[in-house]
Amino acid sequence: MLVLSLLLMAGAAAFTGLLIADNLSGGPDYTVTLMGTEPFTISTLGAFLGGIALTLIFGLGMWMLLAGTVLARHRSKKRRTDRLAARQAYAERDELAGRLEGQDAPAAPTAEPAGHRRPSLHRPGWLRPHGH
Fold first, then answer.
1. Which residues pair with 41 in a beta bridge?
2. Whether this model's pTM surpasses 0.70
């Protein structure tokens, strides 16, 4: 696959070089009409090179679009796995705290201070009160 892609790129580059070399002698100039005005004239070679430049710009835009979607997909997957790991860690912490409370005071459960809430599993860490 790599060899085939290199051959295609080399063939396209050679074809482009031949087209530019054959059109250096000039040719007819064409008047460009842009939104009802005629801002400049362009030769055949200029039109060809302008087409190449526009194609490269379009290709760069497509590449950036695809790279952005792949990056967003990877970020989303990482967030999802991080959330799952956090939920598992919270559940393990709560289970161990329950075991520890059961060992320390088997006779009567202690009352929690007023306003104290255990953090729920769906609250992110930066929303939890500090020290609780």
1. 31
2. no
